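Hi C.,

You asked whether I'd gotten around to modeling the 77-residue construct. I have! Everything is below, sequence then structure, no commentary in between.
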Amino acid sequence: MTNVRVAAALVLLRLMQGRTTLSAEVEAARADMPDRRDRGLLVELTSGVLRWQNELDALLASASQRAVSTIDPHALA
């Protein structure tokens, strides 16, 4: 059984690499989740982060001494 939050972070990391789509990655990650609530949470976490990406980046930029582009992708995900 996969932790849904870890799965969401992995989906976001793969999307940042630019070689896949959200639907393809979510479907692959959902295959390991028997609980429909976890599958729903995965969709909400990944789509929510993408929907709010600009706002999240702006908040990080205002709170950080570094440019968002220099932050480790694992931390961003």
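If it helps when you're writing up: The first helix runs from residue 4 to 17.

Thanks,
B.
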